[in-house]
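The aim of this short unit is practical: by the end, you should be able to scan a pair of folded records and say something sensible about each. We start with the first protein, listed as its amino acid sequence and then its structure tokens.
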Amino acid sequence: MSKVVFLLVHGVHLLDLAGPAQVFFSATEFGIDYRLSYVAEHDQVDSAQGVSLRTDTELPDLSTEDLVLVPGWSAPTLSSTGAVSTAALAWLRAHHEAGGTVASVCAGADVLGRAGLLDGRRCTTHHDVQDELAHRYPRAKVIPDVLYVVDDRVVTSAGIASGIDLALHMVATRHGPTIAAQIARTMVVYTRRNGDDRQTSVLLRHRSHVNETVHRIQDIIESRVAERLSLAELARLTGCSQRTVTRLFDRATGMTPLRYQQALRLERAEHLIGHGATMDTAARSVGFEDARMLRRLRAAAVPADHP
């Protein structure tokens, strides 16, 4: 079990908190064992939107697998808001020094700054307070116009809804892009990328559409990725003609169903190889008869169609 601990301050923005919390809660519905908890200086925190939240006041013991996330709050300026005790700042710092991950949404980056966790690191925050954050922490490198930044287990995101992007990224990093894409679809949101980094996941690149027929086709392909799925079989399973399957899939994803399956196979094989599998083992695990096709695809810039 991993803990996700939200450190709250007075005036917390509900979406800064609820967006990431929903992502990690949804992860539990897909079998990932997270336990969410909420801590603050007092046992009640008033949100900026007027909802009062009940919280714990005791800072929990943490392991390196746990995450501490600081949501943002209503802050015309950072310097006069977001009171956090020295004990809480030391707790954040100790967690990171022990190998744990800390994260923030919006103005929450200021708390990480006060804990000394932004010094020498890249970070971001809401565009309204980016300049102030840079002024308060001159040793930090504040990156404008990105959704989130990851630097040595310090993860900071921009304003409000970008906390969802941050949380989806963390789930994808820890548990793979398939789970992240499933959570995003459940939440009816796009799985977005950092403005700095290329979106590398096939699932995340090609699930940002609203065509339910194509989503059903993708579900079939993803659940049977190692099988030889013909266009005729996909058409039968979705109640469409082969021509309609091809047309809809290309319009939504920019590729054919077989090319999509090939890209998925390559991505999963790369994941297995990265975790110690041999080329032959990875190739057979994802449906290739041997490693020759996998070697050719790895060497190519764009995966080729191959049933």
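Turning to the second protein, read its sequence before its tokens, just as you did above.
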Amino acid sequence: MRAFDADFAVPAGYLNTPSVGIPPTPVAAAVAEAVERWRTGADRPGDFDEYVTRSRAGFARLLGADPADVAIGASVSQLVANVAAALPAGTRVLAAEGDFTSVTFPFAANPGVTVTEVPLEELPQRVEGHDVVAVSVVQSADGRIVDLPALRAAAEAAGAAVLLDATQAAGWLPLDVTWADWVVAGGYKWLLAPRGSAWLLVRPDARERTRPVAANWYAGENPWATVYGLPLRLAGDARAFDLSPVWLAQVGAAAALEYLGGLDLAQVRAHNTGLADLLLEKLGLPPRGTAIVALDADPGRVAAAGIVSGVRGGRVRVGFHLYNTADDVERVLRAFE
């Protein structure tokens, strides 16, 4: 099908973007071409630097940030660990109940840190008395969106640092998040990139509060000059937190982020939430203004209706993205007949 100026080979009824996003044809083709170059021995390691540069710039552009403030990695938890491991003993972290564990586990794994979970809706009101807030912008399990303006105001008033996970938001929800100390996102969902691509925006004044737990040659000022020997010599910007890149993932991410960067995300949000709210309306439920919907439904009946979905917290989870249509809504409704 064709949607938002791109062709997608996605099957009808695919509503599992919160688990795995489907790339447009040019993104898949870029990865396939890279695999062919690999198969025929046509690539050299330095050839992939261009793709890393492009994906870093693409993520920065999506957030309205400077590429120098973006680190590349392979997963959300790996990048969050750079923040969690740097926290001193006695640090009090506030998190949302039931948030994705790639956000919370790195903090809980620091024995000197206390993590307190509260209901998402209460998060801004509970910031006082905490040093760091770590939360997903959009909840993976059910699509609830944190009140970002309220959280920002509360964090500034309390002097608390903020880490935001934009994995279930970036790519469909226009974001104003450069005020946060750190913003992380994985690429293989709404950003339509291969698994193995992730990014961490580090505000310049937060660099000293971030630890390069996986310091490596690629995190050097000039990576090709830091492949051997001490002393430690890392980049002077957020690249100090880079992980050696997953090459094929970065090839796909570069193409995917450039494609998404050319879209009007306000239109994407309207498309996605319009379909999600249409489904809720037809089920007699109130609109929620989010692309992810969690339903009390029989997973077997949903699958029998031709829907590819996920199950989270005992509920069927569906997500609407660029390539979904009203026909997908009708397919879900059949599971309730």
